[in-house]
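Q: Structure tokens for this one, please.
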Amino acid sequence: MITLFVNTALKKTQVALFEDKELIGKKRWEGCFHEFDTLLPKVDELLVSVKLKISDVDRCVVCHGPGGFTSVRLGVSTVNALSFSLDIPVAKISVFELLAFLCEGQKDFCVAIKANPSEVYVQGYGKWASVFPKAVLIGKEKFGSQVESDCLLVEDYEEGSFCLPWDKLDFEKKTVEPWYYKEARITTK
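A: Here is the predicted structure, written as tokens:
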């Protein structure tokens, strides 16, 4: 069973291939608003590097947000298109679920992701679940005043962290919706 993982929700874009649940190839790079130009070529490079074709992919996992409006939409749209064209199931995972999984073994921590220069997305785990029981968008100053020094802050992946919580993934032949967290600020003037 070959699984393709795509994450365009964070600053560093990631693609990975798993055979069954074992990592067999990965790529990570600075997306920096160029995911449109880089995502599919990097997926192709990854497939070639492990001697596979896109038709060998049996299912996909996509990080559906929150994150940048365009980058999240591009990653989700790409996985939805692959799922539809290859007739394969897809599973979604949020940035919070993914990063919290990487912190397994830690008791009390927050997953904090920079949203813009003045705000962060935050979700608490352990004792911090009572402060941030679900994902919230708050100002950095308010966040900083609520968080003690024993709170683990996770803003990005470490290089070696291509792991997935396989038992929490629900694969379906269903379109994934992106999680933008905030409405887009579009004006028509």
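A few notes: The chain has two domains: 2-94+161-168, 96-154. The chain has a mean pLDDT of 85.
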